[in-house]
Amino acid sequence: MTLPEIDRPRSIARLVESSADLIAALQDAGGAYPASPTFSAYAGYSWFRDGAFIADGMSSYGRTESAERFFDWCARVLESRADEIAAITAAAEDGRPVADGAMLPTRFTFEGRAGLDEWWDFQLDGYGTWLWAVGEHVRRHGTDAARWARAVELSVEYLCSSWRRPCFDWWEEHAMHVHVSTLGCIAAGLREAVALGVLDADHEASAAEAEAEIVELIRTEGVADGHLAKWLGSSAVDASLASVVGLLEVVPAASDTGRATVAAIERDLTFDGGVHRYLDDSFYGGGRWPLLSCMLGVAHARAGDVDRARELLDWAAGTAAPDGAMPEQVGGHLLAPERVDEWVERWGPVAQPLLWSHAMFMRLAVELGVADAPNAGETRE
Ligand code: BGC
Fold it and tell me: 49: Cβ below 6 Å to ligand 1?
């Protein structure tokens, strides 16, 4: 696919603003962000993972009210499941953990229910990612976190009881492994839960202890050839790891491991400015994901390579359709071209717009100072 030339930098700023407007327009009245309003398999659902990164993008661009409404929605979802979380943590403490199917889902209907469609639901990362996004938001805007205190506490209980469990990864695959990106999201979430200052002493101690153990586990078993590995014991890299060294700052971007991870993603998964998820990907043929270009861009920026970050931002901008909608992935450099048709037959064309793509684009643009965030605390809705 040849990506259209765009008029920079004005069009970057315009695309950032139209992305924020699109996300605001599509956010449900109750606060949930749809992953993609039109894509058959995602319509009607909100993911904690996508939503947390979307809220962070909106927060970084000054759309504070939108981000807070999403956090309120997460808090309601968690509080409504307090009994379930208590049962899960009690069973784990007794040494007879509940089955994967009895763990919390990864996505919910806008009303906060699990929904009736089958899904690869047991994923732990989102319960860390939302905590991380709240922490970033509060640090950025000085918001009082008291209204999310109970939900933060429930998330800490859930994660501290279960973070060691294998589960589906960001891509909703490979449930038999412990994924380093998932661990990174949990560690970042627990770190932020402590930083929020809303936990009692016991919860704070458990969160801090689990975070330290996770960081140590990543260091000792989650590294291969110097870079972060896709899962514990794997030698491959996965582009989601760019978040662990970039936005989530679990491994500093400028550290040896951080630099080696960015280099491995560039070497194995990046073509031009587009980033594949992982080498064996066959979902819609395994194309390149603009949201991953932006994740990688943040990692580059934090390691000091602003020029490369800017190239990645420009590439991501070029994936937008004439109406501004950004896709989940683009073709043109597929890892498994023979696998496209089966997905199109199953679910229709690639998701577009994907709100997470828009949000990551906004987030990198803000990081690079290309899209000035309005004054902290100001709401642009
Ligand atoms: C991706 C997930 C994402 C979901 C909704 C899936 O295809 O693998 O990471 O959360 O779509 O956007």
Answer: yes
Nearest atom (ligand 1) to Cα of 171: 8
Q: Please pick, among 50, 125, 169, 249, the residue that the annotation labels catalytic.
A: 169
Give, as one character, the DSSP assignment of residue 231. Answer: B
Structure tokens at 3: 């990506």
* Mean pLDDT confidence for 300-328: 97
Enumerate the domain spans of the chain.
8-367
Q: Ligand 1: which of 33, 47, 329 to mutate, most ligand atoms within 8 Å of CB?
A: 47
pLDDT category at 374 given cuts 50, 70, 90 is low
Is 169 annotated in the active site?
yes
Distance CA 289, CA 274 (A): 6
Spatial separation of the C-alpha atoms in residues 351 and 342, rounded to whole Å: 15
Q: Give the pLDDT mean for 216-240.
A: 98
What is the distance in A from the centroid of ligand 1 to the CA of 171?
6
Q: Is 284 in the pocket of ligand 1 (CB under 6 A)?
A: no
Ligand 1 centroid to 166 CA: how many Å? Answer: 18
**Ligand 1 geometric centre to CA of 170 (Å):** 7
172 part of the active site: yes
Strand partners, 330: 288
Say if ligand 1 is within 6 A of residue 35 CB.
Answer: yes
CA atoms of 230 and 223, how far apart (whole Å): 9
- Is the distance from the beta carbon of residue 289 to the nearest atom of ligand 1 less than 6 Å? no
Give residue-wise pLDDT tens across range 22-40.
999 999 999 999 999 999 9
- Residue 372 banded pLDDT, cuts 50, 70, 90: low
35 contacts: CB under 8 Å, gap ≥ 6:
42, 45, 46, 47, 50, 107, 351, 354, 355, 356
Q: How confident is the model at residue 371 (pLDDT cuts 50, 70, 90)?
A: confident
Report residue 182's pLDDT band, with 50, 70 and 90 as the boundaries: very high
Count of CB atoms within 10 A of residue 155's CB? 28
DSSP secondary structure of 22-43:
HHHHHS-TTSPPPS-SS-TTTT
Check pLDDT > 80 for residue 305: yes
Is 81's C-beta closer than 6 angstroms to any atom of ligand 1? Answer: no
| CATH no. of 8-367 | 1.50.10.10
Amino acid sitting at position 143: T
